[in-house]
Amino acid sequence: MSLLGNIIWLVFGGLISGVGYIIGGIGLCLTIIGIPFGLKAIELGFSTFFPFGKDVIEKPEANSVLTTIFNIIWIAVIGWGIALNHLFWGLILAITIVGLPFAKQHFKLMILALLPFGREFK
């Protein structure tokens, strides 16, 4: 089921969304300060390609001081916009029964988009 879900996801927007994250991440990597944020954006882009069959897992260092600082900066600059985008599309897709599995993927990606440091998608 996850293979079919990932294929449908890619065709109906997952590919464009993932490429957008990767292009944004490359843009962030052009600055020295933006490199850690760019790498997380690129990682988020690759996670967006195939979300079915994966979960957000918290790493042991998820609550360290540096991770918390990076997450606060991420939320303040760009994370809130990405999370709202996933929330919007998740709510739109949750209206129909057919869209429920795709809404669930958007809600998983919303958590990762809001707090990407100290978490991974496996």
From TrEMBL:
InterPro entries: Inner_membrane_protein, YccF. Residues 4-54, 69-119 form the Inner membrane component domain. It holds the Pfam family YccF. The keyword Transmembrane applies. The chain crosses the membrane at residues 6-39, 60-80, 86-103. Keywords: Membrane, Transmembrane, Transmembrane helix. It comes from the Bacteria. NCBIfam families: PRK11770.1-2. This is YccF domain-containing protein.
